[in-house]
Amino acid sequence: MEKRQNTRIPVRLSGQLCLDDGCQHDTETQDVGLRGAFLDRVRLGGVGHSCVLTLFGGEEDVFSVTIDVRVVHENELGSGVEFQVLDRRDFELLESLLEARAPSPAQIRLEMKEGRLPDLKNWMLSGSV
Question: Most CB atoms within 10 A, among 7, 33, 46, 62?
Answer without folding.
Answer: 33
